[in-house]
Amino acid sequence: MKQEELTQAVDKRRTFAIISHPDAGKTTITEQLLLFGGVVRQAGTVKAKKSGNFAKSDWMEIEKKRGISVTSSVMQFDYAGKRVNILDTPGHEDFSEDTYRTLMAVDSAVMVIDSAKGIEPQTKKLFQICKMRGIPIFTFINKLDRDGREPMDLVAQLEEVLGIEGYAMNWPIGMGKGLQGLYDIYNNRIELYRSEAEGESYLPLDDNGQLAVDHPLKEESIYDQVLDEIELLKVAGSEFDAAKIAKGELTPVFFGSALTNFGVKTFLDAYLQFAPAPSPHKTQDNQIVAADQEQFSGFIFKIQANMNPNHRDRIAFVRICSGEFDRGMDVTLQRTGKKIRLSNSTQFMADSRETVETAVAGDIIGLYDTGNFQIGDTIFSGKKAVQFEKLPQFTPELFMRVTAKNVMKQKSFHKGIQQLVQEGAVQLYQSYSTGDYILGAVGQLQFEVFQFRMLNEYNSEVVMTPMGHKTARWINPDQLDEKMSSSRNLLVKDRQGDPLFLFENEFAERWFQDKYPDVELTAKL
Ligand code: G4P
């Protein structure tokens, strides 16, 4: 590709993730977006992933589920001259560190909120990671066809709970059974809600923000109420500020109903206008890598193993940060200096995996891996070495003690643990007092996959003893006195040898802080 073509191709990319609490409507919105993109999916492909309420011991089911989840991990479509990549952030029992890491590979995020529930815990966690990255966040408040909270309260909650200003791009005219439409502030029009499409869907507004045509809506009290609310927003609400949106300091707020496909297109059109093209990436030595530079580079943010039990394949997911990928190209893996030919690559389209021939910065490709890659690895073409900044470590919340069932098989047990931990599948800690191995994760599925892979790939049967939820807090080694460990906390070290306490609960942490007020306790992300 010539430089000009490359720059154009990169500028067309929009790569984002949808963050939400389970059941807010992420799947429904995703399916609508794919429809707009003309991607015809086998009905319910995205859905199938959720409904697989498999028994935990049924490994074939997990395999099947993981097979589906890889194809819906990245969904690509073209719309309005843009190439859109949606990265899935699984919820429910699929939630894992991968979910967090996926947010390292996107340029913006869409936050879906259930209008009846407001901001829920999982959204809050995912939001914080986006905020830390300073990426633009777009908010879609869903399920307007049902009765929900007052729109004013929902927008205020953004500021109160998440600490981000919200700017209403549109405003509901009624809710639930009384839903009449959207007052579209940004496009200066009213979008009518109808269960069946009939007549014109948009009504123009005049310069004063009043309906410019005759319509029965004018006679309704809800219309006057909405005009009052719009006035209030103008006086007391945030101002539209594209620069603030770009920095993730202001979130444009859209209302709608994904299920009835109301307001989704309006959202998508505005989103594509303001969402950033692939952003530059920083290297460990503070160099900036522009997305449209000629040299290819990318990093691995996720490795999914055992997708197909017959092949024992692993797929390393690469976010391309710069340049162009061509199948068969040679790259260097920075961590080992090893040269690797990328001939076995895949891209995820709709409900199938396809071999990908070319891709550019902003795209995600999957590389079939035989054990070369680790999470956080950088690959690059050409001679100039590139190493992107390390991926952050996340604070696990669930813990399990782990031992080998067969004491004679310690070797495979240790090998398996080392490799899976290096790969980023789970986190490993060791107790100061007993030397026990303790695994940490953010989601239960990580343990299940660990146990399964230990058996399948390393022939090591493990015994896992749940320790439940803990609050992990790191402590400066200079301040550490082993006597600080008590029955309410457990002193362990992480893989780097850094000490941390696993507190039973927040109360135990507070008790500790009261006792040792000078000791600084820190969390990872
Ligand atoms: P998720 O991926 O965020 O977990 O949510 P998903 O889209 O699966 O939606 C969760 C439930 O909410 C689904 O109902 C879905 O139909 C419903 N839903 C999504 N958007 C809207 C909306 O705009 N309005 C209304 N009223 N409902 C919405 P379910 O009963 O759990 O699933 P299903 O059996 O209907 O598929």
Walkthrough of the structure:
It is a single chain. The protein has 525 residues and is of the alpha+beta class. It has 3 domains: 15-62 and 89-272, P-loop containing nucleotide triphosphate hydrolases (Rossmann fold); 279-378, P-loop containing nucleotide triphosphate hydrolases (Rossmann fold), CATH 3.40.50; 396-520, Alpha-Beta Plaits (2-Layer Sandwich), CATH 3.30.70. It is 27% helix and 30% strand. It is built from 13 helices and 31 strands. Strands 18-17-23-14-15-22-19-20 form an 8-stranded antiparallel beta sheet. The chain has an 8-stranded antiparallel beta sheet with strand order 27-24-26-25-29-30-28-31. The protein has a 7-stranded mixed beta sheet with strand order 2-3-1-4-5-11-6, with helices on both faces. A hairpin with a 2-residue loop joins strand 2 (74-79) and strand 3 (82-87). The longest helix has 16 residues, at 221-236. 43% of the residues are buried. Mean pLDDT is 88; it is low at 48-59. Residues 20, 22-28, 50, 91, 142-143, 145-146, 257-259 line the site of guanosine-5',3'-tetraphosphate (G4P).
Quick synopsis:
By secondary structure, the protein is of the alpha+beta class.
Largest sheet geometry: 8 strands, antiparallel
Number of domains: 3
| CA-based gyration radius | 25 Å
Low-confidence parts, pLDDT < 50 over ≥5 residues? Answer: 48-59
Give the % helix: 25-40%
Give the rounded overall mean pLDDT: 88
**Class by helix and strand content?**
alpha+beta
Name given to the CATH homologous superfamily of the largest domain: P-loop containing nucleotide triphosphate hydrolases
- Kindly, what is the distance between the CA atoms of the first and last residues, rounded to a whole number of angstroms? 39 Å
The small-molecule ligands in this entry are: guanosine-5',3'-tetraphosphate
CATH architecture of the largest domain: 3-Layer(aba) Sandwich
